[in-house]
Amino acid sequence: MSNVSAAEVAKLRAATGAGMMDCKKALEDAAGDAEQARMLLRERGLADAAKRKGKEAKEGLIHSYLHAPNPGLPPKIGVMIEVLCETDFVAKTDEMKALAQDIAMHIAAAKPAYVSLEDVPEDVLEGERELARKKVEGKPEKVVAQATEGAVKKFAKQFCLLEQPWVRDDKQTIGQLLAGYASNTGENISVRRFARYEVAEALE
Amino acid sequence: MSNVSAAEVAKLRAATGAGMMDCKKALEDAAGDAEQARMLLRERGLADAAKRKGKEAKEGLIHSYLHAPNPGLPPKIGVMIEVLCETDFVAKTDEMKALAQDIAMHIAAAKPAYVSLEDVPEDVLEGERELARKKVEGKPEKVVAQATEGAVKKFAKQFCLLEQPWVRDDKQTIGQLLAGYASNTGENISVRRFARYEVAEALE
């Protein structure tokens, strides 16, 4: 009988993209040590993010979520997202629809500005780093490097969808939520883009 | 008894934003001549576009339309739009929702790239003019001017939402459709922005 919990297995699957049985085995072999189990999966070639890398995510779905903050009034906030996967077999599942709905609702509440850190223009990031540098002026290079790195991480957590803690369960990021679904389906699953509209909001 | 048709009245209202009875009266006084009736309304200060100009359209709604081209598959095309008006009294009507739905469905089919001609970057328009100029090289200035003007109009009709003929009734543009609703409600009604997503489409 196994002394590995389903929650631990799920967490490892989300982190590595490996199959359920492989994760269970690795955790058992590692006596429940998650970090060691991860290394085992990598050694065994089962952390399959790399394997999946070459496959194209070109199927998927468009989903939208409209929010009416006041009863009796029409929707004042709207979110539309494109979620990609590899096959229509997965695209048409209720799970994908539920995932798209979860993420769209998250976007409505958490107001990300970008999908991932890579989408942030370099001048925006440089502005964040510059502010951080000013705060540690004159300090050793290592401290400055830590400060600028920390500033970028903080920015990502605040404005990048994949780095944001999920509003409904802040123990995981949206990126981890997606990784969990990717692991469950064995397909690359990604949010390609989203739009968030709020009635009469100021635009850039 | 009046010999002015309801269709003529509706058309004049859409064009001027004036009230129904005022349009009817103007058409009768002008013996059915639409252009003259328009002038009369203007002289009488009843073509109220100018009056409404100062009012802010800052209420409204967000609406979305999802389209699944293949039965059994999830939505592959999505449109989200922001429609503005002046009061929540109008924003919450079924008519506004129907208008938003009509326009969103139009966008799904007609694929506009901009809301209005004013949103088109100048270099894009200049490119269209340049192509037109090449076709009439050496011709009189007037011909060249007509050609470049024609090219811009053609571009607008193809890519600007407000100038596009409505897919469900190409006797009116989306701009005229909006003007009709504006006239009916006595409020400024506008499409502020829209997004149109198609799964895995090429992006710029």
Q: Can you walk through the features of this model?
A:
The structure is a homodimer of 204-residue chains. Helices cover 50% and strands 17% of the residues of chain A. Chain A is an alpha+beta fold. The first copy, chain A, has a 3-stranded antiparallel sheet with strand order 1-2-5. In chain A, strand 3 and strand 4 (169-173) form a beta hairpin. The termini of chain A are far apart. In chain A, 34% of the residues are buried. The model of chain A has no long low-confidence stretch (mean pLDDT 89). Chain A binds chain B through residues 58-64, 66, 72-80, 82, 84, 88, 91-92, 96-97, 192-193, 195, 197-200, 203, and chain B through 58-64, 66, 72-80, 82, 84, 88, 91-92, 96-97, 192-193, 195, 197-200, 203.
- In order across it, which strands form the biggest sheet of chain A? 1-2-5
Strand-and-helix sequence of chain A, N→C? HHHHEEHHHHEEHE
**Oligomer kind:** homodimer
Chain pair with largest interface: A-B, 32 and 32 residues
Q: Which percent range fits the helix content of chain A? A: 40-55%
Structural class of chain A: alpha+beta
Count of strand segments of chain A: 5
Overall 3D shape of chain A: flat
Distance between the amino and carboxyl termini of chain A: 59 Å
Major pleated sheet of chain A: 3 strands, antiparallel
- Mean pLDDT reading of chain A: 89
Query: How much beta of chain A, percentage-wise?
Result: 15-25%
Uncertain segments of chain A of ≥5 residues (pLDDT<50)? none
Q: Supply the number of helical segments of chain A.
A: 9
Round the Cα radius of gyration of chain A to an integer and report it.
20 Å
